[in-house]
């Protein structure tokens, strides 16, 4: 059996199947990395608990900064590789990834504060309260990631610069729907058919 036959068996026959399975594999690997990072974070918290609050503060700041950078990189990679389009340049993805990470962190802190101080989910849902809070957190997290993606798409739509990787191409040949329908060129004669 050749490598190509094995790849077809595992990933499917077309490039779309390979792309979809690669994204799924990436999501699983990110999940595993998240579990490992949470374990390491807990281990570091246990290690620094005995050194005092003043000495532990820089370690906590560095730990959360590394976690934030990993989240930015993960969301940026999702914005770059998940859509079925020509890959965007990293500079066009960074603003949305940073915004999505900030929104996600604020949402995580907000939901945690709300659930622990105001909601009283234990009285209503009993042992299922953790699942309800998790589902609410996933819902708000999805919105944070979508808002970051919308910011990236709108920034890409507002420019006439080619935002895709590789050699610069003219509008309509970039392989990216948003990059090919720029609002910056709506008045140009060749873009008149795009406004319909």
Describe, in plain words, how this protein is organized in 3D:
It is a single chain. The chain is mainly α. The protein has a domain at 87-195. Helix content is 69%, strand content 0%. The protein has helices at residues 3-11, 15-48, 53-81, 90-119, 121-125, 129-157.
Descriptive key words:
6 helices; single chain; globular; 0% strand; disordered C terminus; mainly alpha; 196 residues
Overall average residue pLDDT = 72
The main sheet comes to: none
Number of strands: 0
Number of helices: 6
The assigned structural class equals: mainly alpha
Portion of residues in beta strands equals: under 5%
List unreliable stretches of 5+ residues.
Answer: 191-196
Shape: globular
Rg value: 22 Å
Q: Which quaternary structure do these chains form?
A: single chain
Question: Portion of residues in helices?
Answer: 55-70%
Order of helices and strands: HHHHHH
Task: Tell me the distance between the termini.
Answer: 51 Å
